[in-house]
Design brief:
The complex is a heterodimer of chains A (122) and B (273).
Chain A: E1 4-8, H1 12-24, E2 28-32, H2 35-45, E3 49-53, H3 61-70, E4 78-83, H4 88-97, E5 101-104, H5 109-121
Parallel strand pairs in A: 1-2, 1-3, 3-4, 4-5
Chain B: H1 9-23, H2 32-46, H3 51-59, H4 64-74, H5 85-99, E1 104-109, H6 116-129, E2 136-143, H7 146-154, E3 156-158, H8 167-173, E4 174-176, E5 184-187, H9 189-192, E6 195-199, E7 212-216, H10 226-238, E8 240-247, E9 262-265, E10 268-270
Parallel strand pairs in B: 1-2, 1-7, 2-6, 7-8
Antiparallel strand pairs in B: 3-5, 4-5, 8-10, 9-10
Helix pairs in contact in B: 2-4, 5-6
Classes of the chains: A alpha/beta (122), B alpha/beta (273).
Chain lengths: 122, 273
């Protein structure tokens, strides 16, 4: 079944590719181009899950994640962080920020789809 | 409103020289308007009101990123899936059967633009081999324009763009977009996995060690003058394995050029064994 997913990345190509795949698999997608926009949108649209890039200008993915998880109203939103290649440190920082899952770039879209199903069924 | 900038003939010659020296594209006198209209977008973006001002800006080593953008707008090259189909027919008849027996396959699309040619090569190869068969296959796509390389790498095409692709192949090698991606198609991973991308200026020495089973370099040389073409063909020949083929555009020819490559049929040449 489809989930409501907010995709947050400053790179259009990545947003487009993730959106294409998620919609293909029946999910409903909303996008945000940066952390500020993500925090705005999450309040209104209350998604099931957020696919969140770590490295963005302005508010970083970690900060968005932390803000989300600190707020009782939004802490139920699952967060998959997109980290840089081989970013073991990124993953530690992400866990600390409360992220539920990680994908290190570049990743195969199928793995993201699987990860989403796994988190939503947990 | 900003006054629309015009380009004096003198200024045009300076651009001609600059573009020829750096990227090898020869903007002949009859292409002045084309150059002007393409560059205007860049002037607008930077709010520069003269072509002279833009030239000084773009040649400043500090503004190398803008130089890349300039190349992006002046080098745009249209391409289609299955463009010049007789080349793919030739591959099917004369080249792919030999690749059946090879473990390592190397193919180069030297001016791959937005990727249609690359993916057409991937599709036709996989169809001929009956799948990847655990072979070590690399199809390299290069272009001078980072903009088109990004598009190629993304691999999303409109329904119009994929119209030349047969329905069975379209289903096999593409995902059909839904909702916001309705009427768009995305190349599947099995196809994308064969392909790598790299920015490359055909005027500079090739940073490539591979010898290729064939090279596509179509509809590029029309922009180059004879000495440039001759030098390019000789360097392309250097990257071909013995007996391998070079494909150029149907509107192009190597006749009159000094080359070691042997004519096979229009727009197809072969390196000796």
């Amino acid at each position: 079944m489809g989930y409501r997913v907010l995709v947050v990345d400053d790179e259009k190509t990545i947003r487009d590719l993730i959106t294409f795949r998620l919609e293909y698999h029946g999910h409903e997608v909303e996008i945000a181009q940066n952390g500020e926009e993500a925090l705005e949108k999450v309040k209104v649209s209350k998604p099931d899950l957020m696919v969140l890039d770590v490295m963005m200008p302005g508010i970083s993915g970690y900060e968005v994640c932390r803000t989300l998880k600190d707020n009782p109203e939004t802490q139920g939103v699952k967060v998959v962080l997109l980290t840089a290649k081989g970013g073991a440190q990124d993953e530690l920082d992400g866990k600390e920020a409360g992220a539920d899952g990680f994908m290190s770039k570049p990743f195969r879209a199928n793995f993201l789809i699987e990860k989403i199903d796994e988190l939503m069924n947990a | 409103m900003l006054e629309v900038a015009t380009m004096s003939d003198e200024e045009f010659y300076r651009y001609q020289r600059l573009i020829y020296d750096t990227v090898g594209i020869n903007f002949t006198d009859n292409k002045k308007q084309l150059l002007v209209s393409r560059l205007r977008k860049r002037l607008d973006i930077h709010q520069i009101d003269s072509f002279e001002g833009y030239r000084k800006f773009v040649t400043n080593p500090k503004n190398e990123a803008e130089f890349v953008q300039m190349v992006n707008v002046i080098s745009t090259n249209k391409t289609d899936f299955f463009r010049e189909p007789q080349h793919f027919e030739f591959l099917k008849q004369n080249v792919y059967p030999h690749l059946q027996n090879k473990q390592k396959i190397r193919i180069w699309s030297a001016a791959s633009s937005s990727g249609e040619e690359l993916y057409t090569l991937g599709i036709t190869l996989l169809e001929a081999l009956g799948g990847r068969k655990n072979k070590d296959i690399k199809i390299l796509g290069t272009d001078i324009s980072t903009k088109v390389l990004e598009e190629a790498e993304k691999g999303v095409y409109s329904a119009d763009a994929v119209a030349p692709v047969e329905m069975t192949l379209l289903k096999k090698y593409f995902l059909k977009g839904q909702n916001s991606w309705k009427d768009h198609y995305l190349v599947r991973d099995e196809l994308r996995d064969l392909i790598s991308f790299r920015r490359l200026n055909l005027m500079e020495p090739f940073p490539l060690t591979a010898k290729f089973d064939f090279i596509f370099c179509r509809n590029v040389m029309i922009y180059f003058d004879k000495p440039t073409r001759e030098a390019l063909v000789s360097r392309l020949a250097g990257q071909l394995a013995p007996g391998a083929y070079l494909f150029i555009g149907n509107a192009e020819s190597l006749s009159g050029l000094k080359t070691t490559l042997k004519y096979v049929q229009p727009a197809i040449y072969q390196k000796s064994l």
